[in-house]
Design a protein that fits this description.
The protein is about 30% helix and about 25% strand. The chain has about 180 residues and is of the alpha+beta class. It has a five-stranded antiparallel β-sheet with strand order 1-2-8-4-5, with no helix packed on it. Strand 4 and strand 5 form a beta hairpin. Helix 1 crosses helix 3.
């Protein structure tokens, strides 16, 4: 399970950028436009397993798998903690695990010669993650374009309509399993 610890403070696309896309000069529909921006970003993030804007996430597990796959991207590991035998919370040293991006997703496994610590009977593992694209990342440009076309489609077709341009751009961002 992944939860948001620190929510993003910005959108991937600003209200001003959306206004420019729609050629709107007035601000009287900003509230509706903001709702459409948030919906488009949420849909893109869900479809492509992305977190676009900087945020902190926590992934919790009840047991150690051989390899942990973080189901969202892009992420870096801030910390891995667990409730070890005896009930103490232990932070794993970075040298005890290997984290690599493979096929778009972060995969974590014990380093050679180490194993995961033994958990308490009701112990839990928490992986704290820093998520979001760095400014200037090429995939962020594709994501912004997708959000803009989806927002425009939602705004102009208020009864709902398919947006093929959005679907195409979202497909470019979806993780590829090879």
């Amino acid at each position: 399970m992944i939860t948001v610890v620190t929510a993003p403070t910005i959108r991937a696309v600003t209200l001003e950028e959306a206004r420019q896309q729609l050629r709107l000069d007035a601000h009287d529909e900003d509230m509706l436009l903001a709702v459409h921006l948030d919906a488009a970003q949420a849909e893109l993030e869900r479809l492509a397993d992305l977190r676009l804007c900087p945020q902190t996430l926590a992934m919790t597990l009840d047991a150690w798998p051989d390899e942990i796959t973080v189901p969202v991207r892009p992420v870096t590991i801030a910390a891995i903690t667990c409730t070890a035998a005896g009930g103490a919370t232990v932070t794993l040293p970075e040298g005890d695990y290997i984290a690599r991006v493979q096929h778009g997703f972060m995969r974590i496994r014990p380093n050679a010669g180490t194993s995961w610590p033994t958990l308490a009977p009701d112990g839990q593992i928490t992986i704290t993650l820093s998520a979001g694209f760095a400014e200037g990342h090429p995939d962020l440009a594709i994501a912004r374009a997708a959000i803009l076309v989806k927002t425009a489609s939602l705004f102009e077709n208020r009864e709902g309509a398919t947006c093929l341009a959005f679907d195409t751009l979202a497909g470019q961002l979806a993780a590829r399993w090879v």
